[in-house]
Amino acid sequence: MFNKKYRKSLALILTLALSTTIFTGCGGTETAGNNTNVEKQAEETQDTENTADQAEETNEEDVKEDQELVDFNVGHLSSNAHLLFFVAKEEGYFEEEGLNVTLYKFSNAAELLSGVESGKLNAAAVGSPQTTNYIAQGHEISVIGGIMSKGHALLVKKEALEGVDEKDYGDLTKLKGLRIAQVPDATEDIIWTTGLKEAGLTVGEDLEFVDVDSGTAAYTALQNDDIDGALLFTPYHALAEQDGYVTFDYSNEIAGFENHPCCRNVALTEEVKANPDLYKKYLKALIKAYKFYKENEDGTIEDIKKYVDVDSEIIRAETYAEFVGINPDPDQNAFVSWTDAMSELGYFDKFDVTENVITDVYKSALDEIVEEYPDDAAYQELVEHYSTYDE
After folding, report:
1. I need a labelling partner for 12 at 20 to 30 A (CA). Which of 61, 93, 307, 317 fits?
2. Count of CB atoms within 10 A of residue 2's CB?
3. Could you tell me the strand order of the sheet in which 141-146 lies?
4. What is the CA radius of gyration of the chain?
């Protein structure tokens, strides 16, 4: 960028050059009209210089504003379930709140939790089982918001359901003798193990869970002859249906899990308490992303597609399906029920998990947005949701 002293010298040179051009262009004859032109050109050159000064000051202000953006690192998986991050990033909501957010893709919950605890990540979307287990072990992390709820399904091969009437789909007793692929200790494991127990069935005796290490592996396991079904989350559910497998039931159809949490938005407890304004800005961006998701389906799919390498129509089907819930709310009550369910299965002794669910920062973020947009339907929906699931 030119400095002002240099630019003023350049302006003088340009003035002289322009004067010479006018003189020679007029045949070397100096007239009153020529003098007027020279004076006018000099004035215009001065105006240009002043405009350049103003532009430099504006550019310096823009750079200053960019420099004032606070770096904030967020971890996620390659799943449409984490769409609030993608939308907030792509639609500029993070920047609106003064955050320079970098999204980091991880392959599993253990890596995400490690990133949060080490301080490399300011926040991350982590599965409810892993989050709850981590808290139960004494790790100082807290749930500060929601990402996705529900969104899981049991897919079974048609031949494995031979003789079962479609009206009996969802009756877990019909699963006797089947071998079902699933990720151990994942959300779907907790839900269907609890449901099967309530139905009088015991995993390992009446049917078998075949452990795999990822959602992708559970989906591909359906190609094996010795596997009858798989517990899947989005978007693998739609992919399996597309391949001809049958949806036997959904996670929110299992009693007690009607609005179960899936991924939770987590952060270090001490960091949230020390920097509530920073995390409020982060959550405000996600609340704005929620409104965009509710009102702009095509734009949301485009944003997700940049992070999830799956066909757009499959993403659409899984993102806006009735069995999927996207919401930035912490859902404290549902998370408490979830924690109790895990303790009932023997994962840990029962404890008060509310100490690790921070709701006031989210509520403050929501209140500020509602104050600015009091009549907005999407934000009012979040207000009603909070009063139902957090108070």
Report:
1. 61
2. 11
3. 99-105, 70-76, 123-127, 263-268, 141-146
4. 30
